[in-house]
Design goal:
This protein is of the alpha/beta class. It has a single domain (about 10-215), classed as Glutaconate Coenzyme A-transferase, CATH 3.40.1080. Helices cover about 15% and strands about 30% of the residues. The radius of gyration is 17 Å and the shape is globular.
Length: about 220
Amino acid sequence: MPSKFEGLPREMIAMRAAKEVKDGNYVNLGIGIPTLISDWIEGRDIILQSEIGMLKTGPIAFGEDVDQDLINASCQPVTQVPGTAYFDIFESFSMIRGGYMDVIVLGALQVSEKGDLAGWANPARGLDCVGNIGGSMDLCAGAKKLIVTMEHTTRDGQPKLVNELAFPATARGAVNMVFTDLAVIEVTADGLLLREIYPGLMPEDIQSVTEPRLIIAPGLKEIEL
């Protein structure tokens, strides 16, 4: 069965997550919802890095601005902005592995209450974990802050925030914050802290589609876009 709650569309998840990124940050955006963040930071001093070899990429490109050699992690064409720099894959991953990225934003199949991340293989698809972890483990290991953007549940309504990962791990204890269509959640030493909630829902609604016990923040508020 599908999720029983209707939440934010993917674009609005990206919009809310973009507010968590500070001016002056060097940021890498992963496949899926994260790449949509590039459309919500126009006019801000945020430096986006694409691991294909671009630094200071602009929003997703359309029309005459499309150049298929200039792409983000989702293989979408992106625009150049003043100051865009280019380099090879060696230099790109030297930046990532060297800890120069202030914020990494990734999608996920599952996130555990300890901040473990599974994002590259779903055994339920019957492919015996065939897949490619790619650069995601490097991104997790090198991030100063790791943010996950995803829907709160699977298409059949199962929690994606879980007690323990059921899928192969990308990283352990790496996630700092999770932005979903229903909530904003911080990963703390004590567990998952519910900070913001979709308008009209109650904490018990979020708990009903979340496996780990949620800690309710004293200042719990509606999601701020």
